[in-house]
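Chain A, query sequence.
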Amino acid sequence: MKTVVSRPSAPPPTLGWSDRLGCPGALALALVLIVSAARAGEAPEPPPTDAAALAHWRALRFGMFIHWGPVSLKGTEIGWSRGAPVPVEEYDRLYRDFNPTNFAAADWVATAKAAGMKYLVFTSKHHDGFCMWDSRHTDYDIMATPFGRDVLRELADACRREGLLFCLYHSICDWWHPDYPLGSPGGRSRKPAPNMDRYTQYLKNQLAELIQNYGPLGVLWFDGEWEAPWDETRGRDLYAFCRRLQPSLLINNRVSKARNDLAGTSKAGHFAGDFDTPEQQIGRFNTERPWESCITLGRQWAWKPDDPLKSLAECLRTLVTCAGGDGNLLLNVGPMPDGRIEPRQVERLREIGAWLARHGEAIYDTRGGPYTPGRWGASTHRGPTVYLHLFEWPTAGPLSLPPLPRKVLAARALAGGTVQVRQTPESLAIELPAAARQPQVTVIALELDGPAGDLKPISVSRHSLTRDRPASASNVFQNQPAYAPTLAVDGDEQTRWATDPGTRTARLEVDLGGPVTFSRARLVEWPGDPGRIRAFALQVPDGPAWRTVHRGAAVKPEVEEVFSPVTAARVRRQILDAREGPTLAEFELFP
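Chain A, predicted structure.
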């Protein structure tokens, strides 16, 4: 095995500083390193978020996430597969064979633009420690490969030529670096002689190098903060360090220790950077705290042969629901070992772009609401215009929504067709000829007699007998509150009850608060990986036992059940067979 030795932790070169820093590079960097060293061991007060930069980023709404590196040669997950299933020695030698001769930064950027994406986040370094740029602080980088080209340099330049906001993902943890205490697989091993302070200086040196030589950046997207070696003091210090290098920089909540697991929201009382980061799920409606959902186009972050892709309908509804919840969508692709984005991924992205070419005014530079997202669809607004993004239509009659407290002056369908709107104190009724309704999402613009931003959020939901009732479950993912059973009965399809990986059977029990009669039920799986559930049952108490009143097969991703009326005070949803840990966004019962 080749032992790659890190170069000494010297300051990065002083050439190439952006004029936005306001002082010569050598002096600026010297000041940053001196201040950083002086503040070691304390948590500096982080500077306030750059409001203009945040508003600009939010208005973009849709970005491309790219996970790529030598691991693409194996088709396994980046970072996490180091040590299992790929032996560490083999994983760490992959760079010797990494020669993506078909890589063309211009092609990647063209694909992102064709998809309607407005910014790009590239993995400069993942948990495996391999650096995708020409770093003077380590030899374990892209220049040591047969390819020998600075991928990050070419991509940064291509983004700027084409007007895409260039951003970087960077892992705080580093399972390869000898000074970082934990190693592979998955941070479960320990290094023999770690030095966390020295590693933190290595981390800062590389970040200074990235901001200096490849900036200004739109976002530094940190990850890997969950491990014990990192703490909030280091997170605050790192945030302040990066912001002193580039005051306009945005940094996510993973810089510190504030994140609520994969739900991505931030814990009260903890420093949380500039925005939240739900992972593989759509964030909850929130117009106060900025957020961005990072979601894979397939199932794996890095390239995987024959990885099942999300359908066009699922991609569009995910994008719409993010925007309708007042968040951004960062949609991930994993390029192939030869440097190309897989053609079928490119085609899916172009389909998204074709929809945005007609409906983009309802996504870009909008805010979420006033109607909160749900099964019906979502809404966005800009000025006096409300955009209704409609997923479903009733089989007969108009679509009925709760009333709007402002008068609708005009209505139009963005894809064409005559819209009829009828307002009453009880409802807002929308009619559009069936021939004008779009197969995935139909968008209708309503012009109001005043600004929509003044309206309070309006909930659109059917009355479910399980709504907000006490619930328990046989299994909860890592016993985390972010995946509690009550989240399957909260009326919000962006939250979910989840179970541990490898779970094949599970049960969810709900207390209905007394005897009620019902004859319909609805199950909604988590859209991030539908089709996990292969057999299920609905049960009610029968003396000391439970009686099955209905059975079903695959959900994929939702199913409605109709059965003879049943009266019960409790109900149980039994998952009889799942290919992977079952997870439910909603379990509803109706009279």
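The mean pLDDT is 91. The chain has nine helices and 24 strands.
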